[in-house]
Amino acid sequence: MADGTCSFCGDTTVYFFPGGLCVACTGKAARIKLAETLKQQSSELTAFDASVGTMHAAARRSEMAVAKVQQH
C-alpha cells in the first residue's frame, strides 16, 4: 500500500479504504474481515465513504429495476 497500490488486487490507486483496499475491491470484497484495528478517519474521509456507498447503492437499485422491467 505504501507504493500506491491496493493491498488486495495490486492495482495502482489514489483513494484507499480500510485495510488498504481500492474502491473496486471495497465493493467486490466487502465480506473480507480486516484483522487490524483501524485508525479514526477524518470527517472528510467519512463523508467520502458515505458518498461512495450511496453511489454504489443507487447503481445497484438501477440494475435491479432494469432487470425487473426486462422480466415483465
UniProtKB/TrEMBL annotation:
Domain of life: Bacteria
Protein name (record): Replication initiation protein
UniProt source species: Xanthomonas arboricola pv. pruni str. MAFF 311562
Source species taxonomy: Bacteria, Pseudomonadati, Pseudomonadota, Gammaproteobacteria, Lysobacterales
Gene (name only): gII
